[in-house]
Amino acid sequence: MAYLDIKNFTKSFDKTEVLKGIDLSVEKGEVVSIIGSSGSGKTTLLRCINFLEMADGGEMLLDGEVLFNEQTKNEKDEVLRKKRLNFGLVFQSFNLFPQYSVYKNITLAPTVLLKDKIKKYKKSLNGISFKEKREKVKLFKETELKLIDEKCLALLETIGLTEKKDAYPCELSGGQCQRVAIARALALEPKILCFDEPTSALDPELTGEVLKVIKELKNKDRTMIIVTHEMGFAKNVSDKIVFMADGVIEEIGSPKKVLENPKSEKLKHFLQSVTNKDGE
Amino acid sequence: MNYLLLSSQFLTISLDLLVGFVETLKIFFVTLLISLPLGLLIAFGSMSKLKPLKWFCNTFVWIIRGTPLMLQLIIVYYGPGLIFGVGKGLSAYLSTFITFGINYACYFSEIYRGGIESISKGQYEAGKVLGLTKGQIFFKVILMQVVKRIIPPMSNEIITLVKDTSLARIITFYELIFFAQRYIKDGGLLWPLFYTAVYYLVFTALLTLLFRFIEKKLSYYKV
Ligand SMILES: Nc1ncnc2c1ncn2[C@@H]1O[C@H](COP(=O)(O)OP(=O)(O)O)[C@@H](O)[C@H]1O
Ligand SMILES: [Mg+2]
Question: What is the pLDDT, as a whole number, of residue B87?
């Protein structure tokens, strides 16, 4: 069985069927790109995977564990929150927190989530004196905070923004913002990192720096699902390319197979329109 | 009249008016103390998914904002006595604090609501995918952005409150204007009433400076 296994995902908004039975599997360490014209349901698929939307039907397993099926649809927020942490999502529009520095943007969630961790740790401490317990918890917290700090600094290096650590989002370029957003998502060590058109909101001269970071992540064997319109990049970085049209996966396969030997008329048409745009 | 006498009279009246102004300040601060948090509760109510609660809050805000504050003061002060019999009404203090608190909470709630609704959905979703709870998202992500957005309308409303305090006079709350009016009745002196403007002006000037300072403090980020 694959690492991530999605079977027959369906989703409708009111009466429009947006996902009409999506089957998708992703292996560990694999990079899967999703291409397709606007409105084909790519964003909706990513949002369902990340539990920002609840799929109507189907099944999703990660590493053998059922994350979604017909029975789990009405789960409480608390459970969903834990499930979301399996995934990271990088938005087209970055969605950085404007009031926080780059450093705080990256460390906010790990620091906040540390509270749960400390609570758990406290419960695990039994049969010792109050004072001893307090000492231990304090030490635990300090160690964890140091780990968060170290990880953040390492991530800043990965995205090449070490010197922007204390800058605020409004002082950064779009490309820099998106790199911070990637680091922010990585700080929680998601099993699978999803990107929704990470370069679509950027000026053309800034897309390169973001794509470079994503490529480096591939070299570190990150499992990623990338919705993109950058065909060259998709060809270059993907192990598998998925072509979506009208809520179904029309074609799927290696970059070579999908991009160079398209079978369906829809894909041929789509590739033509993309190359035409590039040629302009 | 000799100069010394005049200036000593000026000093005495200034100090006396200062006592009145302290009463005015009581209304001002107690109103903020009540209305700032209460407004947030009403704002949450008016955005609630529970239809009856939402409807109730919206109607309440409509009624409070749609009627004069002076009328509300009179109703709260005289109403209970009229309905439940003489002597059972609220004191002038209590009526004033309750009425002002609720009245301003309704105005603030609309400002809060506008501020909260103006924050993009993306900010909530970014918080969600990072595994934060609803409460954490509100307090860690949304709140400071809302604060920055609402400072200008809030400062407007708060400066209006400084002047609205004078309405409490009509239910015998002895505030600054009331103190000044006594000089007309008692000694035919009109100038103390005119002179009260100085107190209001100094205080609103201080508030204006305070809000400018806060705005400047928050200028390091854009929302
Ligand atoms: N929240 C929503 N409510 C109603 N319709 C939606 C919503 N989100 C997406 N849609 C519709 O679903 C279709 C697919 O959208 P989307 O997943 O964003 O496609 P893509 O990302 O491939 O451009 C579109 O027709 C869009 O209008
Ligand atoms: Mg999209």
Answer: 62
Starting from the edge strand earliest in sequence, which strands make up the sheet with A87-90, in order?
A: A87-90, A192-196, A223-227, A31-35, A240-245, A248-253
pLDDT score of A277 more than 70: no
> Which pair of structure tokens corresponds to residue B30?
């107690």
Domain ranges of chain B: 2-217
Q: What is the pLDDT of residues B111-121, one digit of tens each?
A: 999 999 999 99
pTM of the model: 0.88
Predicted ipTM beyond 0.95: no
What does A243-278 look like in DSSP terms, one character per residue?
Answer: EEETTEEEEEE-HIIIIIS--SHHHHHHHHHHHHHH
What is the CA(A54)–ligand 1 centre distance, in A?
14
CB half-sphere exposure, A207, CA atoms < 13 A: 15
Number of residues assigned to chain B: 223
Residues of B with CB under 8 A from a CB of A: 120, 122-123, 125-126, 128-134, 136, 140-141, 144-145, 148, 220-223
d(CA B5, CA B18): 20
Specify the amino acid at residue A131.
K
* Residue A63 burial (CB count, 10 A): 14
CATH node for B2-217: 1.10.3720.10
